[in-house]
FAD-dependent monooxygenase (Amycolatopsis heterodermiae), 496 residues
Amino acid sequence: MTVAVLGSGPVGQTAALLLARWGVPVVLVDEHPVRDPAGSKAICQQRDTLDVWASLGAGCLAEEGLTWTTARTFHRDAELFSLKLPDGGSALPPFVNLSQARVEEVLDELIARQPLIDVRRGYRVTGLEQGISVEIQCETADGPRRIEADYAIACTGARGDAVRRALGQRLEGVSFRDLFLICDIRADLPGWAAERRFYFDPPWNPGRQVLIHPCPGSRFRIDWQVPEDYDLAAEETGGALDERIRAILGDRPYEVVWRSVYRFHTRLVERMRVGRVLLAGDCAHLVAPFGARGLNSGVADAENAAWKLAWVLRGHAGEELLESYHTERHAAAVENAEVTTATMDFLVPQDEARREHRAKALAGGVHAEVDSGRLAEPFWYTESPLTTPDPRRPFAGRPPRGTLPPPGPGVLLPDITVPAGRIRDLARQGFLLLTTPGVDAAGMRSAEIPVGGALGARPGEAWLVRPDAYVAAVLPDPTAPEVAIALRRGSGGTFT
């Protein structure tokens, strides 16, 4: 009973730790002998991602990260609007900025203390074969090696071509022509430490965009949109990079800690489950970073995959449950692609009609039509085959930017506290039945919830919650058979 996790970036690390928490032995494979700590890379960690990490013992990431609560959007020198992020009733901040390197360091420390995780570094995956198990072929400094596991989660990132090729998958989609220059800069910028700033067409980057994120330790991450023929080396040598930075910072002292140039993509595989292998994170989907939907979505992939694999391996459910991983997380990837593509179409209009629309929206300051990136949020499994619909709580679709849908079937449970503890911590121990006073829990592990509280629960209801803290069903006047039917559906129709 072993799962191989291929790739030990934050998504792979999270998957390995979640599986181990469920008691599943893991072989964690990575091609790099040691980590590269350079650069901020993925920096925006959303509340629900922090919640997953906190459940694994990495609550320090929320504490160490720089909390920001305001997203400001400017056109040239004028502020168009600002967005205050909802607190969601949680003790965790809506977003923190923290370098990917620090996240990996903390998760590595947890992995080192987990006896169920066997880490193998310097193992480059070259292929895999499937039958009654998964056989992974690897190249190492000591020659070829083979690893056999019951299942695998592929978290090998955008460059995981060998894995995708072996599974008959490709990252299909588009790449954007313009490049983006990213610099991590250490400087003192009073008043900028708790807000994200997005500039359309600023005087110091005319015709293009700039994004500025605060980070811990008086560091700031600055992203400039630059032409496709941009030459970073030439700009550094000729002093133009210093001029570019000075246009924002003025004469303040600064230090460039890291810099790089990226091209953004919107691409995803056709299948996120191929037999005994589940694809997660950048191995399965790539999106432009505006809105911070990359890493955060990958962590959601990891949690979805981990509990379902654990249920199958424990004999609680049949392999049919694994198909719902593709159904749910591919739908999430499609939504992320739609959201980020709309942002990129606004940032870099591809035709005259879109250019005119953008110009009018910016000139008029029409908040609803200006797209500087819809910030990462959970995907709602309202259409999932695991979710029992409640006609009294119809899902109204994607809520307005910066807001959350009301709790209900398919929605991630709010992070609230009940007498028995934090609801999400309780849910992550297995399926949980939340009841209002007077409801028979039908022999299930349950906790009572206050009527009219943060859930909007009504008298006589029972709320069935999945092991990833999503609501599987809301049952009015529940009977034991109704609870059993919802539980069977929530576990893929094969609960034993």
Summary: The domain at 380-496 is CATH 3.40.30.120 (Glutaredoxin).
